[in-house]
């Protein structure tokens, strides 16, 4: 007998939900959007009417306790992730939480421990793990296409001054500037494609007149397991760009736009400067695949790719990056 779809409710509904999640749910096979909550209830009522969302919850508690919700998808500002997650877990709900997972690794560890203690599924919405570009790179690196990885880099730049998410420069709500907002995607992408973890971080960063107490531009040098040296660069002041590149003992693999879901991505493999392979993939279904994977995992099926433990490790890397910026020294996780 066919199972009914897993019912998600979005807690902290905002720009990200409208731009990315609402288009993804109708394409899902195992997931459906059953409700939402946002602080501005009048806006929430309008959103539910506009997008035909069945349940418009008046409070966080009402959403988390609802029998019409199986999964709480937390998309609230970073500073609210801990309390929102713990509330959902207390009501027996599985939780998928946006990145960065928390305001510190300590908070992330508390959230993950609470989920483990309750026996509830807990994942991080590192959606790029469901991008076909990163999947292809991971598979080919594992198969030895470029030999043993030695150097890696990931870049994510965007013009934050044009962002609809005004809270991302508020240090009371956001973990940081682009380090926490998109640098975490770069860190996680490199961990995913390489199958390695971060050991230490050395950070250069700067603020500007528009960034408040958070950074505007940053460069992270990371030591990773597997004898890999990696660089993450991120800026909130340049046109959009993303890049993932891995240098191995036998070749180099480059994905220009490797983290985008908005257009096809070309991945090029070179040996001695000559192109030996070129593939084009489309990441447009990445959010749908993430949602369905979480739903299947909840029903006892396949493993969800971005676990609470992954979220904790990413937060440890972010904490080390920020600490290094402030201390001027390399910081170990």
From TrEMBL:
Single GO term (MF): nucleotide binding
Q: Which residues belong to any copy of the Gfo/Idh/MocA-like oxidoreductase N-terminal domain?
A: 6-125
**Keyword Oxidoreductase in record:** yes
GFO/IDH/MocA-like oxidoreductase domain boundaries: 137-253
Q: Which family does it belong to?
A: Belongs to the Gfo/Idh/MocA family.
Top-level taxon of origin:
Bacteria
- Note the PANTHER family from the entry: CONSERVED EXPRESSED OXIDOREDUCTASE (EUROFUNG), CONSERVED EXPRESSED OXIDOREDUCTASE (EUROFUNG)-RELATED
Q: Which UniProt keywords apply?
A: Oxidoreductase
This protein's species is: Tunturiibacter empetritectus
What Pfam families does this protein's entry cite? GFO_IDH_MocA (PF01408), GFO_IDH_MocA_C3 (PF22725)
* Protein's recorded name: Dehydrogenase
Listed InterPro entries? Gfo/Idh/MocA-like_OxRdtase_N (IPR000683), Gfo/Idh/MocA_oxidoreduct (IPR051317), GFO_IDH_MocA-like_dom (IPR055170), NAD(P)-bd_dom_sf (IPR036291)
For this protein's source organism, the top of the classification is: Bacteria, Pseudomonadati, Acidobacteriota, Terriglobia, Terriglobales
